[in-house]
Write the structure tokens for this entry.
Amino acid sequence: MNYFKGTLVYILILFPTIAKSGNLSTGNNENKVNKTDVSGTIQLLKNAAEQNEFLFGHQDFPFYGVHWLGDPGRSDVKDVCKDYPAVLGVDLGGIESGGDKNLDGVPFNKMREEIISQYKRGGLITVSWHSRNPLTGGDAWDVSNKTVVRSILPQGTNHAKFTGWLDRVAVFLNSLKTDNGQKIPVIFRPWHEHMGSWFWWGQELCTPEEYKKLWKMTVSYLRKKKVDHLVLAYSPNLVVDQKDYMQRYPGDKWVDIFGVDSYHTGGTKDAIAFISNLKKGLEMMTYIAKEHNKIIAITETGSEGLPMPKWWTQVLYPSISSYPVSYVLVWRNANEKLKKNHFYAPYLGQLSADDFVEFYSFRATVFAKDMQLLLPSNRQNQAIK
Ligand code: BMA
């Protein structure tokens, strides 16, 4: 059990007001990204990073695993280490078409339920959006046309269609509430991996100005729809040069987290290169995040199929342990009947499962039980003792 392994929890138990009143956002009130409730989430992540701790996250963990689908309360990570991840990642892809399930078959109603459960257990939630292509009708990976972004900006032929899509996103985000009607803060990271060219919003598919306009339009439209509970994460695929990282940065008023998506492909033979490139990227991000008074995170990572038995302690951990990374999220564990060998967290009996338990036991790794202690009810218990 690692209930008391971290100092993050003590800081928040002793000084709960820090979490409520902290605010890392810059800019004047009118343009501030955050209302008070989300500044607590940002502060929590900042505290973790400052204590050399990071929250562990897993995409889609409550919905399915490699060998199961829809078992209530289950998660491959929990099967292995008896604890839920501290961060739940979900994807809204498909919501724009008005369907009731996302692109990976997760019903939006179920997604909402699990987001609420994750919040109740003290965890955080991050939302990505593999939106379909609004011009061609294809999916997010349809890069056959380079005018898609231009076509959805104001004055573009598809602007009205696209704001209709944003309306659906706003309705879902605004429905994420606790029983007493309080909205649940979520880390929203739209238009990710934009320094690659595999999504219709990618580098070769729009100009830097168009990308920035897309970001600002998305955020300001959602704000107009009263979506005021977002922590905004900018998450290019890995670049190591500061100029590249900032090429499409929309500005401090529009971003809270400096993220990066970086995958280890190729197993053992590419491990050293993966570690060294990720370290270069994190070094640069640490420097600019400090200049901009922001926090950093690894918004997506993983080694597909986990072929290395000690990937957690010998590849992932050494890549990030010297940097103030606030959270790290590994991608989904696709059900093997739907997509073979497409998993990024261990399941019981998987080659890297024992090493994951070791990684879990590290003081630096934060899971749901650590987060539980931050809940107001538990803070009171602590005070009484
Ligand atoms: C990708 C893969 C796809 C999935 C998409 C959105 O990286 O996992 O199978 O549809 O993410 O979750």
